[in-house]
Design brief:
Rossmann fold; about 375 residues; alpha/beta; 7-stranded parallel sheet
């Protein structure tokens, strides 16, 4: 059985790793990987393959950065050519990036079966490119692997339930496996001289927060938290760094700006942090899985379960609400009670999602063939 996985951004590399390990347990699966090159910086791409012990991609399209339309169109053209040559039994797409949409559209147009890993997520904010990508991908895919009950509920409401199964979250598989590697391989906390000290970790990259009218005030508010509450460590996304260079840097002196981190370092940093501040979807979950409270700098989240459990607070880019929420969270007892950890298993699974998906792929797509 020939499967081809299309990936292009670091969250997709993380999701790919557990499935690659599961596929390797089945001799009948011939699995190839195409990297679109959507993330092309080594710290955002190549190091992930090394740390996650992923096989090197069979092909890197080196698409690089461009507008959404240009990037997606270039990917579609290149991927169609590869699909026609490979003739896979199924194309596997992950998450909600432009690489996801491009692969899905290219495969659907030439009638190749498509499986969507991490299906059914909805933020209900159509201004987010990811929301457009995930909705379109779900409706064009033949098999939908929902990570959570909420994902299944969304698919049911869109009349897609007959194509879907709930599997648990492959990101949970990944975190459970890789945090053990991080314990043995990462010394980021010691390198940053943070051992035994309370600190916050920050990631910020969404246009709603990096717009020139928003970013300076948001960074100043976070700088005040870093000065008054606890140090804030900020591994800066390349796009955010470029935008910060254009702003007045006065008032940013308390934040600790560092380069993007390798995956194991980032896991270790988040696990040791007192709180995570982020606008990333993936980091909201990783923080929850690592039992670190999270404050999300967005108005909505596709990971509503983390909010329902009380381990994630939404503040948008309201600087006053951000300050008050952070101060309240860090002065409160841990929200990760025994009941919350049981809920985590119910919502996200217990680390066996890759096995469930692999068994279903073998059954479903072989039957289709």
């Amino acid at each position: 059985m020939k499967l081809v996985s299309i990936v292009g951004a670091r969250p997709q590399f993380v999701k790919l790793a557990p499935l690659t390990r599961a596929f390797e347990q089945h001799a009948q699966i011939q699995h190839s990987i195409i990297h679109t090159g959507q993330h092309y910086d080594d710290k955002m791409s190549a190091v992930f393959f090394d740390e996650l012990e992923l096989p090197k991609p069979d092909l890197n399209l080196d698409i690089g950065s461009a507008s959404h339309a240009v990037q997606t169109g270039n990917m579609m053209m290149r991927l169609e050519e590869q699909f026609l040559n490979l003739k896979p039994d199924a194309v596997l797409v992950y998450g909600d990036t432009n690489s996801t949409l491009a692969a899905c559209m290219a495969a659907a147009k030439i009638h190749l079966p498509i499986a969507h890993i991490e299906a059914g997520l909805r933020s209900f904010n159509r201004k987010m490119p990811e929301e457009i990508n995930r909705v379109a991908t779900d409706h064009c895919s033949d098999r939908l692997y929902a990570p959570t009950p909420a994902g299944m509920s969304h698919l049911r409401s869109e009349n897609l339930e007959s194509r879907a199964i709930m599997t648990g979250d492959v990101m949970r598989d990944a975190v459970m496996h890789n945090i053990e590697l991080a314990h043995s391989k990462s010394n980021i906390v010691e390198r940053l001289e943070l051992h035994g000290k309370p600190f916050a970790v920050l990631t910020l990259h969404r246009p709603s927060n990096t717009d020139t009218a928003v970013l300076p005030e948001l960074i100043k508010a976070i700088n005040a938290l870093s000065a008054d509450t606890m140090p804030v460590v900020f591994p800066v996304h390349p796009r955010t760094r470029a935008l910060l260079e254009k702003t007045d840097k006065q008032g940013y002196s308390s934040i600790r700006f560092i380069e993007p981190l390798a995956y194991l370092d980032m896991l270790s940093l988040v696990q040791n942090a007192a709180i995570a501040l982020t606008d990333s979807g993936g980091l909201q979950k990783e923080a929850a899985f690592l039992e670190t409270p999270c404050v999300t700098l967005r108005e909505e989240t596709e990971w509503t379960e983390t909010v329902e459990m009380g381990v994630n607070q939404l503040v948008g880019n309201d600087t006053g609400l951000l300050r008050d929420t952070v101060n309240r969270v860090v002065s409160s007892s841990s929200p990760f009670t025994g009941q919350i950890l049981a809920d985590m298993n119910r919502f996200f699974g217990t680390g066996k999602a890759a096995h469930v998906i692999t068994e279903d792929i073998l059954q479903f797509f072989q039957a289709q063939a």
